[in-house]
Amino acid sequence: xxxxxxxxxxxxxxxxxxxxxxxxxxxxxxxxxxxxxxxxxxxxxxxxxxxxxxxxxxxxxxxxxxxxxxxxxxxxxxxxxxxxxxxxxxxxxxxxxxxxxxxxxxxxxxxxxxxxxxxxxxxxxxxxxxxxxxxxxxxxxxxxxxxxxxxxxxxxxxxxxxxxxxxxxxxxxxxxxxxxxxxxxxxxxxxxxxxxxxxxxxxxxxxxxxxxxxxxxxxxxxxxxxx
Length: 227
What we know:
NAD(P)-bd_dom_sf, Pyrroline-COOH_reductase, ProC C-terminal domain-like fold, 3 domains
């Protein structure tokens, strides 16, 4: 069977599944300008709330997955489809704000052009990486679940600030911007996080004292086992 190319200029995207992940990706794609809202679609069978969420930012909502597939050039599944021409992608919820960490793997019958199109689509909502499918369990644990760990860290930092006397709004602002700034430094400088950590810690200072307390609480991970 001949493999037909998909136009990168006029393709439409359908989501099988209307949960939080599909919503995050759709919002990110629309916000980035990659696709207008009406070139995205999903199916909602009975959940009025999910229908209203997608319709609120212009996504077409059908009553069946069959309609979504019929109208779409690219179909994004929440689980691996039982076909060969697929590109598996593990995104994460920061796609909603254009900062996803997504990983993709080509199916056996998927073409390089398919991969390029998917990379362009998900690249509009963050960064795209490639990996063998056998790595996806680890990818899921790191970047798929990772935002929850970061949210927990931000909450803990803010709680510490509040405990020290800061107003809650200021504490959350400082905590979230500190995490964003740290991540940006790692990404843009290419330096190992340990090197950047050492740049902040001075002998006998408050930072190394805090790091020591975190290490005592099994903050870091060494060779797959917590200290």
